[in-house]
Amino acid sequence: MLSDNRSRSLQSLFMRGAAALLLSLTTAAPVMLAASHAGAQTEKPVSGGTMTIINGSDIKSWDPAITAGTYPGGPMDVLDAVYGFIVYVNDKGVVTGGMAESLASTDAVTWTLKLRKDMKFTDGTPYDAEAVKYNWDRAADPATLSPAQPFISSWNKAITVVDPQTLTIKLSSPNANFAAQVAELCPFIASPAALKAAKEKTDIKPVGAGAFTLTEWNQGISMTMARNPGYWDQPRPYLDTIKFAIIPETNSRIATVVQGGATMMAGYPYQFGSNATAPGVATHEIPIRGINRAYLNQAKGIFTDVRAREAFYSAIDRARLMQAFTQMPGYKAPSNYFGENSPYFDSASSLPAYDPKKAQELFDALKADGKPFSIKIVTYTNSDLKRLAAYIQQVLTGYEGASAEIVEVDQASLIQRCKTQLDFDICVEGGVLVSNGAEPNISNLLSSGGAFNWGQYKSAEMDAALKEASSTLDPAAVKAAYVKVQKLVATEMPLYIFGEQTRSLLLRDNTGGVVPSNGGILQKQFLYVCTDACQK
Questions:
Q1: What does the alpha-carbon distance between residue 386 and residue 391 come to, in Å, rounded to a whole number?
Q2: Residue 228: how many other CB atoms lie within 10 Å
Q3: What DSSP element (H or E) covers 4?
Q4: pLDDT at 92
Q5: In a 3-state reduction of DSSP, which class is residue 488?
Q6: 299, 456 in Cβ contact below 8 A?
Q7: Distance (Å, rounded) from C-alpha 282 to C-alpha 275?
């Protein structure tokens, strides 16, 4: 294990390097790297064996169009095992080949997808350009209820199948971030035959061409997958079997790994404590900056008034909120979406600081206008988020004319409650959203049709600034556009940014082949069991 100081030093060096890399990628035509996995593992891979990955909740459907967040322990983690990412963003911020060899463009307008030759779904049907087009056309249909529908429907009519391994997409305007957005929003391709055979979403069988095939699904408890012998990248996957165990409570997940009942769980260093040094246990940091955020409903309710959003920011000391959330001191509240190591960071635009006097003035002004500050906090049932919600409620009740109600839901139901039903004032999603660089997450969060824009924030100015940033390959112009974005974030407060953290895995020390994507999801085809300890 690295010392704390050395670990932080390496993390800082990585972040500066990653930021420089991401900036350099915007200065030339977007490059899609083929799947060269140098550094995927330093030990000699071992074939065979079983691993168990703990997730916080089960999936609701095997529909490849229903995706939600490239973070470990979420629904996409399971879908990836069966379908495989068509392309993914690695932990250096580079779009990398997965089921496809490449997704590339020389002008950011016309993009070419090259698939690997002779791939087949596990039902024997071809994984070809027609299959990809079918999946994307289906996701573009509003009836599919895909979270990525607004994104895909903006370009799916311009798909041309060139040959079985090739299709092109001509965008209506330049988008230098298109490949990264595909990796985030629509990376999974299922057998069209299997999708057509399902009368209802609940009837969809997971027929993909990924590294594993589903053999057993005990809903709400676990699922078991077997090695796909027809996977394109032989001899991968190395594991014979991969299992997912559903354990909602964080402390129970940790105990299961420490006691040897599971191979790994995703979390944060504050959660692990002394368990990180237990016999047979190691940690693996995913060196990415992530933001803790909550969504503010701007379609209805008190947060439609920007004064209410400012009052909320002013009312709560976000560093103390993070301490209540993590039970650890020393956090610094982020000043804006980009961190200080980002090439886009603008020190001139800062979110409102903790100011109780200002908060009370705003609460009073809202009340005088017939808008008492009474909010519904929606989050899911885990101990960390319960503490966070309780702290917000406690602080708000200390102000005259402010109150809060807490509503807890199952993690898998949070999207339905918040994004679909808009039944919240503030919705707190666990985990962090990757913000190493700008895209694709910043547009997902802040654009009018963004997939992660649960609060339905709409701003023509913001849309224009985001489009400006993605329509140019000039780094100075990109930075200038993101300065505008940060100014709008600071003045309009479209969401609540309250912390920043890096993700980490708690895992058994004989876990090899740990290759995370940008969001932290492991590329499971590389995993293997070491003969002895291979994690230090």
A1: 9
A2: 21
A3: helix 4-25
A4: 74
A5: helix
A6: yes
A7: 9
What is the spatial distance between Cα 361 and Cα 352, in angstroms, rounded to a whole number?
14
What angle do helix axes 318-326 and 383-397 make, rounded to 10 degrees?
140
What are 114's two structure tokens? Answer: 């090259």
Contact 418, 410 (CB under 8 A): no
Q: Which one, of 90, 89, 82, 87, lies nearest residue 101 by Cα?
A: 87
The sign one gets for the Cα dihedral 253, 258, 262, 264 is positive
Band (pLDDT 50/70/90 cuts) for residue 276 is very high
Q: Contact at 8 Å (CB) between 183 and 89?
A: yes
| Separation of alpha carbons 290 and 313, rounded Å | 19
For 44, phi and psi rounded to 5 degrees? -75, 120
Bridge partners (DSSP) of residue 376 are: 405
Q: Cis ω on the peptide bond leading into residue 440 (within 30° of 0)?
A: yes
Looking at residue 351, the DSSP 8-state letter turns out to be P
pLDDT at position 535 is 78
For 221-346, strand residue ranges (E) read 222-227, 241-246, 264-267, 281-296
Identify the pLDDT of residue 153: 96
| Cα–Cα separations (whole angstroms), residue 84 to 185, 418, 520, 521, 525 | 13, 28, 15, 11, 9
Distance, in Å, from the CA atom of 439 to the CA atom of 307, rounded to the nearest integer, reads 29
Q: Which of these, 108, 225, 227, 110, lies nearest to 159 by C-alpha position?
A: 110
pLDDT tens per residue across span 382-424: 888 999 999 999 999 999 999 999 999 988 788 889 999 999 9
Supply 69's token pair: 């967040």
Under a CB-based contact definition with an 8 Å cutoff, are residues 447 and 459 in contact?
A: no
Query: Identity (one letter) of the amino acid at 80?
Result: D
The SS3 call for residue 486 is: helix
Helix (H) or strand (E) holding 137: helix 129-140
User: How many other CB atoms are found less than 10 A from the CB of residue 440?
Assistant: 27
Structure tokens at 214: 């589903």
